[in-house]
Design brief:
By secondary structure, this protein is α+β, with helices and mostly antiparallel strands. The chain contains 14 helices and 26 strands. The strands form 8 sheets. Strands 1-13-22-12-2-11-10-9 form an 8-stranded mixed beta sheet, with helices on both faces. The protein has a 4-stranded antiparallel beta sheet with strand order 5-6-8-7, covered by helices on one side. Strands 20-14-21 form a 3-stranded antiparallel beta sheet.
Length: 551
């Protein structure tokens, strides 16, 4: 048995579909199988099993972390973020940020070709960024990475591109490192526009692999790009990938996926927390875990609708919750309870550790607050009432999003809230109804987590202007001028230390005003065969296959 727990990021942008999990920056590496005296070997293949197939394979549209993982090998980015939070050249050889922080100028490589043999240049970058921000694209996340200050992209010579903002917007460099702002062939964006979500041969980038085939509901296959010669600085090499090909299998059933891993039918797999012990005990496997930066898994509380429009009711939700006991019971101590909406592993020293053990587990206070809010009655079922109306909170979710024992945790919260007289109703809905209900604000509680290697993810959740930004994560409906000011100052032209202080102010505010119930710090957990070497991991723990090879 070999265990690799990747280091948390200490220095310096999943979600799966809303309510399910986490996204990606890029960085970091770990050889899950250990070093080999023979060195990297060219050729061979591997199979990686994931727990869900994205509904859309276009990272410019889809917010899903699994989309980012799948398409990382296809779409290169302008810059590369390493595990310390530093940035390195990739498609851009260098960059400059204007003194006022409003203009990002990138000098681009001259030797890059897309796999359809068209040329990468400044116009290609502009075409991509224009497409992402076009209303017709219906971007569900990538467009939000430009914030609400994006003015446009200009071509300044064949290999110089300028990205302009109406005010300083420092998080853009990290955004430019993500798969979501990866650069697609402009030809594919026009000729395949209506097919990009289908993936497969419609996905065309300049990356180390070509997405050669997709079997819907089963798998997607990648073959090596033999002409690749522009790997990012910090990735270990720059030429073609070592693997001849690799396949990603979609195995939503946990037992099937884990069984495929332990029987060597697949070489690596996303594993549920319930399988960790069996993977650790297997001498042919390594267990790899990585805390995800960004927004932890928790409940966002809708302030725009009664009864959560009353801060006393929201605070009672936090006071009623014994999060450490619940998380430890459901996840066997493998996941850390969350105290802030922001993950401790988020770069830049932005996490506010002063929030640890500062709230929760006070049912007496919860009952008192509910009484102050007018819920003085108790019905025959034991729930609080106000003017004869039961105190009920509706938590809408998609059944497929309740992976990794989240359904078990949800039921535990239902029981916890009942002790203080809150009726927490968990309403399973279809995917279509889910997003319709969100647009109408027809919910009280949403469960979300969202990984990003930059604390600016807080903007998407808590800045009042986020509601107008396509692809925002504005679930709590926070509308507070002070929060807006902190976030504007944090991502403006200030020092890293001052920026971190503003982000910490936001975290404290969200707890003091109870707009979120943080639950646990998400992790990306993998089981990996020891025959696999050189596998790298992005900032969220997702595997990157460029440097991987088979012993």
């Amino acid at each position: 048995m070999s265990i690799v727990r990747l280091p948390r990021i200490l220095a310096a942008a999943t979600a799966t579909v809303l309510g399910a999990g986490v996204l990606a920056g890029c960085s970091g590496s770990s050889d899950s199988a250990g070093a080999s005296a023979a060195g990297p070997v060219s050729g061979g293949s591997l199979t990686f099993a994931v727990n869900q197939e994205p509904s859309c394979f276009d990272p410019h549209v889809s917010p899903a972390d699994v989309t980012a993982v799948i398409q990382r090998s296809v779409y290169d980015s302008l810059v590369y973020q390493d595990s310390s939070g530093s940035f390195h050249p990739w498609l851009a050889t260098s960059w400059n940020v204007s003194a006022n922080g409003k203009v990002f100028t990138f000098q681009l490589r001259h030797d890059v070709q897309f796999t359809d043999r068209t040329t990468f240049n400044a116009q290609a970058v502009k075409t991509n960024f224009d497409s992402i921000n076009a209303a017709a694209t219906k971007s569900e996340y990538a467009s939000a990475l430009f914030g609400q200050y994006y003015l446009g992209t200009k071509v300044d010579g064949q290999y110089t591109v300028e990205v302009d903002f109406s005010r300083a917007f420092t998080p853009f460099l990290q955004a430019a490192s993500t798969t979501y702002l990866g650069i697609a062939s402009p030809k594919s964006l026009t000729q395949n526009a209506s097919h990009l979500c289908a993936g497969g041969t419609y996905s065309v980038g300049s990356g180390p692999f070509v997405e050669s085939a997709r079997v819907p509901g089963q798998s997607v296959t990648f073959t090596r790009n033999p002409n690749y010669g522009w790997g990012p600085e910090g990735s270990g090499h720059s030429g073609p990938a070592y693997l001849s090909k690799y396949t990603i299998d979609f195995l939503p059933d946990d037992s099937t996926r884990v069984g495929s891993l332990t029987s060597s039918q697949v070489d690596a797999a996303v594993i549920p927390v319930t399988a960790v012990k069996s993977v650790e005990a297997d001498t042919q496997l390594s267990y790899v875990a990585h805390e995800s930066p960004g927004i932890v898994y928790g409940l966002q509380l809708n302030q725009a609708r009664t009864p959560l429009s009353d801060e006393r009711v929201r605070q009672a939700v936090l006071d009623a919750s014994d999060v450490p006991s619940l998380v430890n019971a459901v996840y066997f101590g493998l996941y850390k309870p969350a105290w802030s909406p922001l993950s401790p592993s988020t770069p830049g020293g932005t996490y506010d550790s002063a929030l640890v053990n500062s709230w929760g587990n006070d049912p007496t206070a919860a009952v008192s607050l509910l009484a102050q809010a007018g819920y003085t009655g108790v019905d025959s079922a034991g729930y609080r009432t106000k003017n004869g109306v039961q105190l009920t909170l509706h938590w809408i979710y998609i059944a497929e999003s309740q992976t990794d024992e989240r359904d078990t945790l949800g039921q535990a919260l239902v029981a916890e809230f009942k002790k203080v007289g809150i009726d927490l109703e968990r309403d399973v809905v279809t995917e279509g109804s889910y997003f319709t209900d969100i647009e109408k604000g027809d919910y009280d509680v949403l469960d979300l987590s969202w990984a990003r290697g930059d604390a600016d993810i807080l903007r998407g959740f808590y800045h009042s202007a986020s509601a107008a930004v396509q692809g925002s994560e504005d679930a709590s409906n926070t509308r507070d001028p002070q929060v807006d000011a902190w976030l504007d100052q944090a991502d403006g032209n200030v020092s890293l230390a001052q920026s971190a202080a503003y982000y910490q102010d936001v975290q404290r505010w969200t707890i003091q005003h109870a707009v979120v119930l943080p639950l646990y710090v998400t992790e990306y957990q993998l089981g990996v065969s020891k025959r696999i070497h050189g596998l790298q991991y992005d900032v969220s723990g997702g595997p990157e296959f460029y440097g991987a090879w088979v012993a």
